[in-house]
Amino acid sequence: MDLNKYSVTWKVTGMLLFILLVSFVIHVVLIVPRFTRHSENYARNILQEKARGVASSIDGVLRQAAMELEKIARHPDLVSMEPARIDQTLLLLDGVTANFLSLWVHNSKGIIISRPDKSERVGADRSDFDYFTSPLSMGRTFFSNFFISPAGNLTTTVSTPVRGPDKTIRGVLVGSLGIDERNIDLFRVITEVSIGDSGFAYLVDGAGRVIAHPEVSQPGESFEGLDYRSLPHIRELVAGKTGSTVFLLNGVRSVVGYAPVPSSGWGVVVQQPISETPDYSGSLLTYFLSIFAAMFVVSAMMAILFTRHLLRPLKLLGQTAGAQAEGYENGKVRDEIQILSSHIGGMVDQITTSEKKLKEINQNLKEEIEQRKTADEALSFNLAILDLQLERSPDGILVVNTDNKVISFNQRFKVIWGIPEELLEAGYDPPLLDFVQEQMADPEMFLKRIHYLYQNPRERSHEDIYLSDGRVLERHSEPMAGEDGTYYGRVWYFRDITDQKRSVNEIRHALREKETLLKEVHHRVKNNLQAVSSILDLQSVYITDGEAMKLCRDSKNRILTMALLHENLYRGQDQTRVDLKKYVSALADHLLSSMERETGSIVIDTRIADVTLNPDTAIPCGLIITELVSNSLKHAFPGGRPGKIRVDIAMDGDDRYRLTVSDDGVGLPDDWDLAEVPTLGLKLVGSLSAQLSGTMEISSGRGATFSISFREYTEYHGIL
What we know:
It is built from 19 helices and 23 strands. By secondary structure, it is an alpha+beta fold.
């Protein structure tokens, strides 16, 4: 039996290395192709970001032109839409503007009302041209596809709405923009892009035609015999998508990245042969060889440790057996066997202990895995609920982190603002703000408020914002903070309340019309009643009978009682409630003045609580006061003696009122009974009290007192 230490060590080492070598080959075969594909994806992402950067540069150039045109559109002469004033202003701007070859204006129907350069006749109908219809439908500045001007220049039209003070679109201002002239040198922007040895970038318009290309002499030409408009990535770019791909052109595989220019319907394409892109497969092979070398060293060390700790007891067993064969004494053999047994027992104990520890570790790992699995399932469930709630919300919701970068949004937010998904997914704050700002009726105030919240991240906000297309949004934002106060970002909520605002304005308008109508009704009723009173005055001139004169005066007082009420309603803020304090005071003054020749020095003291009643209750109260005060003025102070009449109205419980009319005159006769009184006035008092479901108490001592407790009349029968 050959138990040579080093022979066994190298055999174990060789076996482990063989296993590692087979594993290494399998990994190389499976992973290297994947890594190669990863290299392609990495190159595609690089070129896609490059295309975004170039598109952003071109967008900045175009935005300068757009901002200049929008500034001109806000000029008062253009807002007036008066052709003479517009012609004068555009002539002054000719040659002053930094970018535009010519400027002209259409009214809201598409008719040219000003064209100083005379290249088109004034009055021409262009209502079906895209440079007129697009800014009207989008509500913002529009860049058309390019065309070659009569002078042979590469040109596009830029058009923007002209809005009045009420933000309605009154017309469209159009500018002819020379792309390859003045400051809009897009060829320079394209040709300065550096992409490897033979990579390049080019610009296409909304129809997929080439605007600027380092190897195309005329815009719109085909390049190397291939029409770019037929390429799949050009079709996606025209549709406003961002992306990258690998395609074969003239036998050369190339990587392409593409991105739209946000302020226009144009797009940028960046292209590079795949042979010039970084290849990481060689690096991967070196990486695996390094791993294999490290595994070789580890395997050798493991084999040595295996030999020392596992084969040593077997070696002792072999030596003992050899000693027995050579005739060693039984005692010495027994001692060697005991030593061997001791070593084997120790090894078994170590293995048993290690096995227990491994079982414990394994059990702990299982429990931890189960816990994490349960936590992951709970988290996935909660996230699913949150996503469902986010999408079901009627509000447009946007979530940003502490760097104001978009981390979440719902579909409603996209619909409200019309933001392209790639702009949201990119998550960059400035382009997103620029896109939203263009839709604001007051962009400066919008940005000022946003920057204030950026500087004060823990503040809440709630306000209405008005868009240039006439919509009104309710904007609400809340800071996101943990239980420990850590700030994580902000949640924005947007709700379209245009219809709600419109309904509120319509209701307010209807209420104002109703108030005006009610005031007019009260005013006319008052005038009619005063006319009747004047007729009675005229009629009284021809009355010689004293009793008839009194009846005529009583009728006039009753009519003026109602006229005063309608005047109170006409002059008040609320046409459905009567201010009793003002009404009763005016009524008392009128009654006292109407009988001044007969009453002498009589005072009427009114003590009215701050209460209001509806007209159906106030008119009976006024008539009752008129009859009782008139009765006191006639009968309580005979012979011209002085006296005092007092009128009180106060609350009598939660929903009742108490009207009291008293005097300090001669009082009522002992046998006086209201039911047997023949006069119309006091019978009218009883009837009106019953109409109010009131209870009347009459007392006489030092003067007479009439006290009526009543409830406000709620059954509407119209205003008398």
